[in-house]
Amino acid sequence: MLTEYIDSTERAAKIIREGGLVAFPTETVFGIGVDATNSDAVTKLFAAKGRPSNNPLIVHLDDGGNWARAAAELPQIASTLLNAFCPGPLTLVLPKLPAISDLVTAGLTTVGLRVPDHPIAREILRGAAVPVAAPSANRSGRPSGTTWQAVAEDLDGRIDAIFTADATSIGIESTVVDCSGSDPVVLRPGAITLEQLQRIVPQTRELRTGEMQQIAVSGQQVSSPGILHPHYQPIAEVFIMDLPPKDLSAEVFAVSAFCGVECSDGSDAFAMSKVFGSLEEYAAGFYEFLREVDRQSLEKVFVQTAPNDGIGKALRDRQRRAAGG
Ligand code: TXA
Ligand code: MG
User: Fold this and answer.
1) Domain range annotation of the chain
2) What pTM was estimated for this model as a whole?
3) Residue 94: how many CA atoms within 13 Å on its side-chain side?
4) pLDDT tens-digit profile of 230-280?
5) Of the candidate ranges 5-14, 68-77, 226-235, 275-284, the one whose mean pLDDT is the lowest
6) What three-state secondary structure class fits 162?
7) Fewest Cβ atoms nearer than 10 Å: which of 9, 39, 127, 284?
8) Which of the listed CATH numbers 3.90.870.10, 3.30.565.10, 3.40.50.2300, 1.20.200.10 matches domain 4-218?
9) Ligand nearest to the CA of 192
């Protein structure tokens, strides 16, 4: 397939309406959008990404007021969170509307719903006028695409079009919150923090470690199947450290990279290194750094642990998974 490089939201919306696959920017990462009511289009999307069919997709809408285009009902807690954080980097897991393809939700009775806060995404969604399923724009298992060039690297020739917009600003995917039970449960940490959610709905909680393990061992239909699959992994081996290691041999330094935040000391010895000026910049540049390590054919990447607050929590989660843990 010949991939079109576009900068028209009308063109993007038309391709989606006609059953095609279009990568477009959101404030978190680029997504690959398809009509969530069109099972043929959704099938093509899973094939293009190489995504396991038991990992459900998030459905995107242009406006929170249109939730009934994807969800069968909006529980009170979900309505409260929607009003507080949407549009924005939050995904609400809600009872599914039958019109959404069962392939999108991997057979679950729930659907993830998100209203992105990005002018291009919203214009495309408005123009498409259908609920749009959009996973992150990367081959399954790879770091998510935060620039259109990264998207092209993974998906040129595999999807219909790529919107050539600027790099995404947040750089880490949305917070996924299960609102189908009595209390909201954070299934995937993201830019909206647990503290922010609890300020609005105090009983919001994280997935417990035990619950995670249960999910991992049961191997059955689970409430957030994405937890089971490899994610965000470059070809290079990833090591998580508190500080740049100093005791490596010259041979190892020559094939290694380092990235971190506010800790310049010791990073110069690496073949490639980047010290970000703030935690937000670290999150925004993390996936692109991992991809650059692969472009330079380096073998190892040493990653400084993100501080455990704000978006650092989400970044730590991505770092752990990038390292295969
Ligand atoms: O920021 C984002 O969320 C980006 C942009 C493009 O919107 N999208 C994204 O999609 O990260 P994806 O497919 O890479 O990740 C979706 C996550 C997976 O972990 C999946 O398991 C979970 O959301 N998910 C989707 N539907 C779900 C559901 N019904 N129940 C539980 N988890 C669900
Ligand atoms: Mg993804």
Assistant:
1) 4-218, 237-322
2) 0.96
3) 28
4) 899 999 999 999 999 999 999 999 999 999 998 768 899 999 999 999 999
5) 226-235
6) strand
7) 39
8) 3.90.870.10
9) 1
Helix (H), strand (E) counts: the chain: 10, 15
- Atom number of ligand 1 nearest to Cα 174: 1
Helices (H), 156-234: 194-200, 209-218
- What is the amino acid identity at position 321? R
For ligand 1, pick from 173, 221, 223 the residue to mutate: most ligand atoms within 8 Å of CB. 173
Structure confidence at residue 220 (pLDDT):
47
Cβ atoms of 87 and 115 within 8 Å: the answer is: yes
Q: Which amino acids bring their CB within 6 angstroms of ligand 1? A: 26, 28-29, 31, 55-58, 89, 91, 93, 105, 108, 110-112, 114, 116, 134-136, 173-174, 176, 187-188, 223-226
Residue recorded with tokens 């009511």: 37
Which residues, in sequence order, are CB contacts of 163 under 8 Å at separation 6+? 6, 7, 9, 12, 22, 23, 24, 25, 120, 124, 148
User: What are the tens digits of pLDDT across the range 276-310?
Assistant: 999 999 999 999 999 999 999 999 999 999 999 88
The residues near 207 (Cβ < 8 Å, ≥ 6 apart) are: 185, 186, 187, 224
Question: Does residue 143 register a pLDDT over 80?
Answer: yes
